[in-house]
Amino acid sequence: MMEVIERKLWEQNIRFVAGIDEVGRGPLAGPVVAASVVLPYGKIFEGIDDSKKLSPDKREEMFHLIIENAVSIGIGYVDSMVIDKVNILRATLEAMKRAICNMNIVPDYLLIDGTYKLDGVPIFQNTVVKGDSKSQCIAAASIVAKVYRDRLMEGYDIEYPMYNFSKNKGYGTREHIEALMKYGPCKIHRFSFAPVKNSLCNE
């Protein structure tokens, strides 16, 4: 069972605890997407967990539960052109900042999955390694970010059907690499990532 580490913050009467997580650091194509989610003060939801541990159907179910119950949700993303320009780590942190800015409230506290705090964000914050397995609000953010990005990639699949983005979501599967070598990259590929660079050499 999830620890729900935000309980300690609730006990200090910190009400608006935002969990922040991202998805899409590893793919060869598409944006990196972050979500920031504040769930109701003191409330525990059954079924919310690290998005990677949930089936697609369960993720969709939990996504709708979160949308219906969250106090506030913000989503931020950074596209492949910016990723190539600034690198994936800086793009990920920027996506997180955008997610916070896109909320309709200012959180009292941030719980951020991983090890990097957000510079220039004047809100109390703490990082949590493997936070999507330890914090309910980070897990909720992981679900929102994953579902949102998957839907974006399914949309790109219509535009670029040869890469089968609806299935691989831009990750470097064998099928995706083979398509890269055959067709070359499209505009949403990350040209700074080695397999995409290699496909250019193959042309």
Automatic annotation (TrEMBL):
Leader peptide range in chain numbering: none
Protein's GO biological process: DNA replication, removal of RNA primer; mismatch repair
Subcellular location: Cytoplasm
Enzyme class: hydrolase
GO MF terms, alphabetically ordered: manganese ion binding; RNA binding; RNA-DNA hybrid ribonuclease activity
Keyword Kinase found: no
GO cellular component, one term: ribonuclease H2 complex
Main localisation: cytoplasm
Occurrences of domain RNase H type-2 (ranges): 15-203
Catalytic activity from the UniProt record: Endonucleolytic cleavage to 5'-phosphomonoester
Domain of life: Bacteria
Cofactor remark from the record: Manganese or magnesium. Binds 1 divalent metal ion per monomer in the absence of substrate. May bind a second metal ion after substrate binding.
Biological function: Endonuclease that specifically degrades the RNA of RNA-DNA hybrids.
Name of the protein described by the UniProt record: Ribonuclease HII
Source species of the chain: candidate division TA06 bacterium
